[in-house]
Write a structure and sequence with these properties.
Blueprint: E1 6-11, E2 21-25, E3 27-40, E4 46-48, E5 54-57, E6 67-77, E7 80-81, E8 94-98
Antiparallel strand pairs: 1-2, 1-8, 2-7, 3-4, 3-5, 3-6
Length: 99
Amino acid sequence: MPQTQHVVHATSACAANSPAAVYTVAAAESAGVLADLYDCGLNRTTVFTGKRNIFVGWDEFATLPYALATQMVVGLQDMAPVDASCLNAPDRDVLLSLS
């Protein structure tokens, strides 16, 4: 069985002097997508339903054919804060994978 991959993700804060939020994550699993929903119109046209950023889980088989995904939703397990001072990247996003 392969080891669980630990991920450290630092996101820059809105204020320039604010520290970044850094966490380790024991596991990440795709849960579904945020999507704009469409329906079938006349003469096989596609009609926007007016619903934007609706969560559609991977098990929602009836809805998935009508969903245009805009973002993937990921479930994170066992998040733990980490000291960000060692990253030296306060002004940009950092994504590191550690084994």
